[in-house]
Amino acid sequence: MDSLIPLLNKIQDAFSLIGEDAPLSLPQIAVVGSQSAGKSSVLETIVGQSFLPRGSGIVTRRPCVIQLHSTPGSSAEYGTFLHDLSERKFNFDEICHEIVAETERECGKNKGISSKPITLRIYSPNVINLTLIDLPGATRVPVGDQPSDIGRQIEDLVMSYISKPNCIILAISAANTDLANSDAILFAKRVDPSGERTLGVLTKLDLMDKGTDAKGIFTGESSDVPKLKLGYIGVVNRSQDDINKKVPIEKARKEEMNYFRNHQAYRSFSEVMGTDYLVKKCSQMLIDAIQKALPEISSQLSEILNVKSKLLSELPEDNQDNLRTLLVEMIVTFTDRFKRLLKGDTGLESSTRAALTGGSRIEAIFKTIYSKEINNMAVLESLTPADVQALIHNVRGLGGGLFTPDEVVIAMIRQQIERFEKPALKCSKLIYNELILVLHKAISQVPKLQTFSNCSVGIQKIVQGIFQNQFNSAQTEIKLMIKMELQRINFSHPEFIGRNGAMKQIQEQERLAASGGVGGTSTLGGPIRNASQLPNQGAYELEQKSSKNKSPASNNNNTNLSEPASGGGGFGDIRARFGKSTLYSKS
Asked: Residues 118-155: pLDDT tens digits?
């Protein structure tokens, strides 16, 4: 029966090597717990070696499949990784460093996580055949540069494993905390409410408050704790001080058993406590689960073999010329599908659907989303008379002045030009996302790429890399263009109204109003069909009337900020000196 676990490991490894998740529910033991529950210490005590990374925050950022292989008669202890079977690592510190390096290769150096597992095989005469899956510890509050939704990401990853019906849940909880709030128990209860496949493990029993113990939990007498049909097992791990002093795990396991044998509350059932009993219990549970699932696994494997054999028979003969021809054919077909999705083709199935796809969606991004956002931009919405007057006085500085400085107009125009950057960057991001969708669709429309999954992944990675580089260049170019426009404001542009042009428009508007109708010709050329063609100069007119009604004595240094200074300079003067079209002019 002991050979069942290594056999199951071979099946799992076969699917991992071809880059696929096992399409059948294989029995496995998943280790679940919060970051401070002592999960790593339990695993290291089971293995008998210190090999897991430690630190603050999230340390386990990828599932780690730990396969223990018993080697009776041998004194050697070493580990190998599925991604590098050629090298045996006899130094367990090197195993720890490789776990960190492989995690960073997949997840980067930040605190992100990945569902892609690391498979570690440990060969030792001091272990029994057993496979455990170490999952990232639960957390709720992001720390440092962790993603804001890190808690949800970890929860989704944990649930993807323990929700499988053949998964045994090893729920690690600290005994000196309230079990009702244990993350491990809460996760387990969501997928296994009856506790049929959950084994509780209580750590830190030696750290409980003096005069308290967990006897009632182990015997089932406590009614205020979650009930598990597989029960609870207590363990005592090395303390942080023991870890720092590198106390051997073998010595720690002996002290653990002495603790249970001598403790008044636990001595009567010490034989079913501790790491040694936990290992035997886990091994037996896994073997029982394999035996129960064996007929179903055998049937599913037969179906998978038939499908793969059929695909294998459809492949060309294994020679370099055939493979080269097939590769070129797949690439050409992919590029053709991609081009047709972008340029449009009535022969494609998607062209008959109501929803826009491919190139038509990119066209819609330009014409509806980006264009609408630019055209609906209210140029003067953020410029209140108070803001303008404050800017005028700040630019004039000590001593004031007679006229509105050009720098005021330039400063306000530049503020508006800067507003064009955000929608442009947003547009480029939307187009990038749409191109990624087109890429995935084009790959899905090449049947042979579904057979050669590694080739499909390779094409996707290369093309996506090209898109990413071009996207980064586009974003840089957009920012550069905005900076170029900010360098010089072109007052000579024919669409720039200026003060004289604005005055002519106001006079024309007053003349038409006096004649009792709208008609004639605008000063910008072309017939005036609607009063909306004329700029809203209400603020200017009010200030002009106000200045006419002022007595000479009122024109002193106590002039209200909302009034124009002598010779112009009020809000109406600013509006008269530039129009909305100025912001769209080219330098």
From this structure: 999 999 999 988 999 999 888 877 766 667 788 888 99
Nearest to 191 by CA among 160, 220, 223: 160
Q: Decide if 379 contacts 583 (C-beta within 8 A).
A: yes
Please name every residue paired with 131 in a beta bridge, in sequence order, or none if there are none: 67
Least confident of 256-260, 264-268, 517-521: 517-521
Rounded Cα distance between 259 and 414, Å, is 75
The average pLDDT across 34-58 equals 85
User: Model-level pTM?
Assistant: 0.58
Mean pLDDT of 318-331: 79
Could you give the count of Cα atoms lying within 13 Å of 154 in the half-sphere of its Cβ? Answer: 29
232-234/84-89 β-pairing: unpaired
Amino acid found at 367: K
Residue 46: pLDDT over 70? yes
pLDDT tens digits along 457-472: 889 899 999 999 999 9
State how far the Cα of 455 lies from the Cα of 324, in Å rounded to an integer.
Answer: 12
* Alpha carbon distance 573, 502 (integer Å): 9
Pairing of strands 198-203, 84-89: unpaired
Residue 233 has a CB neighbour count (10 Å cut-off) of: 19
Sign of CA dihedral 176, 178, 181, 186: positive
**CA distances in angstroms from 378 to 373, 513, 535, 581, listed in the order given:** 10, 26, 13, 12
Q: What is the mean pLDDT of residues 218-244?
A: 89
List b or e across 333-359, with b for residues whose CB sees 16 or more CB atoms inside 10 angstroms. Answer: bbeebbebbbeeeeebebeeeeeebbb
CA distances from 515 to 45, 346, 503, 512, 550 (A): 98, 58, 18, 5, 29
Measured distance CA(475)–CA(497) in Å, rounded: 32
Q: Which residues pair with 121 in a beta bridge?
A: 67, 80
Question: Residue 144: what are its φ and ψ, rounded to 5°?
Answer: 65, -125
Asked whether the predicted pLDDT for residue 2 surpasses 90, the reply is: no
